[in-house]
Design brief:
By secondary structure, this protein is of the alpha/beta class. The protein is built from one helix and seven strands, in the order H-E-E-E-E-E-E-E. It has a domain of about 90 residues. It binds zinc ion (ZN).
């Protein structure tokens, strides 16, 4: 019996070594193809954002961002980036869209069929930043 236990323990230790060697220390979910920041979208500010649902304007004073890896655009109802001394509140309603090209700076309009809402100050899988901030 004691020998069996030591065999089992040896197997567990061997498995431990195998898993330690094959699984990356920091496993993460890939939200964005081409992401170089731990699988997340790297959303850089574009300017003001307008969200329309099937052509009807839902809000027109939001904040627009574009992912620097996959070109996805997100427009949030409330500002998503924290700049010096500024507190970020709930992001509110938001919409995502991938135009497949780089948007020019200024006002970005997204026309979608579905929007989301969050009471959080962040969205999982997204990192927001202003120009001039890393
Ligand atoms: Zn992305």
């Amino acid at each position: 019996m004691k020998k069996n236990i030591s065999i089992v323990m040896s197997l567990i230790m061997m498995l431990g070594i195998v898993f330690t060697n094959t699984i990356p220390a920091k496993a993460y979910v890939m939200y964005c193809s081409g992401s170089v920041i731990g699988g997340r979208h790297d959303m850089l500010a574009l300017g003001r954002g307008i969200v329309r649902v099937n052509g009807v304007t839902i809000f027109s004073n939001g904040s627009a961002y574009q992912c620097q890896a996959c070109k996805e655009v997100i427009v949030t109802e409330n500002n998503a980036v924290e700049t010096s001394g500024e507190t970020v509140g709930p992001l509110g309603r938001y919409a995502t869209w991938n135009p497949g090209f780089w948007m020019s700076l200024g006002t970005a309009t997204v026309n979608v069929s579905h929007i989301n809402t969050t009471s959080s100050t962040s969205i999982e899988g997204y990192r927001f930043r202003n120009r001039g901030y890393n």
